[in-house]
Amino acid sequence: MPATTKATTALVRSLIASARVRVFAKSTCPYCSQAEMALKKHGIEFALLNIDLRKENDGSKIQASLLELTSQRTVPNVFVNGHHLGGCDDTLAALADGSFKKRLEGPPGEFAPVADHDSASETESSASAAKASI
Ligand SMILES: N[C@@H](CCC(=O)N[C@@H](CS)C(=O)NCC(=O)O)C(=O)O
Questions:
Q1: In whole angstroms, what is the distance from residue 62 CA to residue 14 CA?
Q2: Is the distance from the beta carbon of residue 34 to the nearest atom of ligand 1 less than 6 Å?
Q3: What CATH number does the domain containing 29 carry?
Q4: Which residue puts its alpha carbon closest to atom 14 of ligand 1?
Q5: Residue 10 is assigned to a structural domain of this protein
Q6: Contacts of 96 (CB under 8 A, 6+ apart)
Q7: Residue with CA nearest ligand 1 atom 15
Q8: Quick one: pLDDT at residue 1?
């Protein structure tokens, strides 16, 4: 795992802050697909970044930054309204018990999001149950 750089940490923070729901994932990760499907099923829009598809080839650095920021190195790594939520299991549980929507609608967390701002990245894809946005 590479050492994190300030630039990568700033990038990760801006990616989290740029979406109400941010999912860091890997395209090959079944837990990521599971979390993404559950979010779609609940009609929750989210911004997805598959770190293994980055043309910048900085996925390992992003993963290291996420570990530093959240103490979690696995993907998916999910953020809701500026709060770190966790992985797939945490996401499924929060969707099931209603705490996901409470977080979404409550006060923003430490990674404070900015609504309706699109942080563009060519390798970033977005998903929504209804439409593609962010
Ligand atoms: N229990 C975890 C499982 C997540 C997990 O094991 N993800 C794998 C990818 S499928 C991972 O991140 N492995 C380490 C890595 O890819 O660097 C969750 O609910 O998210």
A1: 12
A2: no
A3: 3.40.30.10
A4: 74
A5: yes
A6: none
A7: 74
A8: 57
Rounded to whole angstroms, how far apart are CA atoms 104 and 111? 13
Q: Residue 25 Cα, ligand 1 centroid: separation in angstroms?
A: 9
Inside any domain, residue 134: no
Model confidence over 28-76: pLDDT tens digits? 999 999 999 999 999 999 999 999 999 999 999 999 999 999 999 999 9
Q: Is the CB of 104 under 6 A from ligand 1?
A: no
**Domain total in the chain:** 1
Which stretches of the chain are DSSP H helices? 6-17, 30-41, 59-70, 88-97, 99-105
Q: 59 in ligand 1 pocket by Cβ < 6 Å? A: no
- pLDDT over threshold 90, residue 9: yes
Query: Ligand 1 in contact with 76 (CB < 6 A)?
Result: yes
How do residues 89-132 score in pLDDT, each as one tens digit? 999 999 999 999 999 999 999 997 555 444 444 344 444 433 33
Is residue 132 included in any domain, yes or no? no
In this prediction, residues 19-34 reach a mean pLDDT of: 98
Residue 102 belongs to some domain of the structure: yes
Q: What is the chain's alpha carbon radius of gyration, rounded to the nearest angstrom?
A: 13
Domain limits for position 28: 6-124
